[in-house]
Structures are given as structure tokens and as C-alpha cells.
Amino acid sequence: MDSKDNSSNPSMGYSTKKYNIPTKRYCQTMDLKDDPALIEKYKEAHSRLKAWPEILEGIRSVGILEMELYILGNRLFMIVDTPLDFDWDTAMAKLATLPRQAEWEDYVAMFQDCKKGSTSDQKWQLMERMFYLYE
Question: Is residue 5 very low, low, confident or very high in pLDDT (cuts 50, 70, 90)?
């Protein structure tokens, strides 16, 4: 198990990647259907062994350096690290056209509290940063 997959002891924290370029971060949220069995299946679908390789490749191909999902109950929180010149809208439009992306979105929609046929960009809501350790 790598340090990012420390789900058995989250109080140990998670290591972060280091990049040789300046980066920025996006944070998003979404709710899953409040059904423990569905939530477990959703978590399994995102596991190292079950994640669809085409989806991982597609995420990287649009310029995303790292994507992490965190869960509490049925609330998801996503962190996305990108280069400074990354354009969110352009990347999400491209992502929606990549092989198997629509199929993946339809598959995971059964777990998510969203409308059928929604794209990733329609499901996930960008969050506003309201605090950081000011310098």
C-alpha cells in the first residue's frame, strides 16, 4: 500500500507529490447516494485494481498532474493539482470527448447524487477557498 492509500489510518496523513513546475489546485465536492452498499462499490470502482486505465490516462492527457478523492459519509471532496497555465473549462470539455469517458460517467452516476447523463464537470462543483494560512 502506498502512502496515498492510507485509508486504514487517515490520522497518519497523506504524502503529496512534488512538481518541478509551479502548480495550482482546484477543489470540488459532490454527494453520493446515501447508501452504504453503493458507497462501498463506488470506493471499489476507484481502487487501484478496479480503476479504468483509459480514465486515468484521459485525466492525465488533459494536463492534470494529480487528482485525489476523499470521502466522509456520502460527501466526496476532490483535489486536483495542475500546472499554472491549465484552463479548467478547456480541459473539462476535452475530457468529456475522450474514449470511454461518457461510459465511465454513466457507470459512476448510479452511485452519485446527480442527473443521468451528466458530465464530470456538471457533477462536481468547484469550491471557493475561504481560508489559508495567510503570509
Answer: low
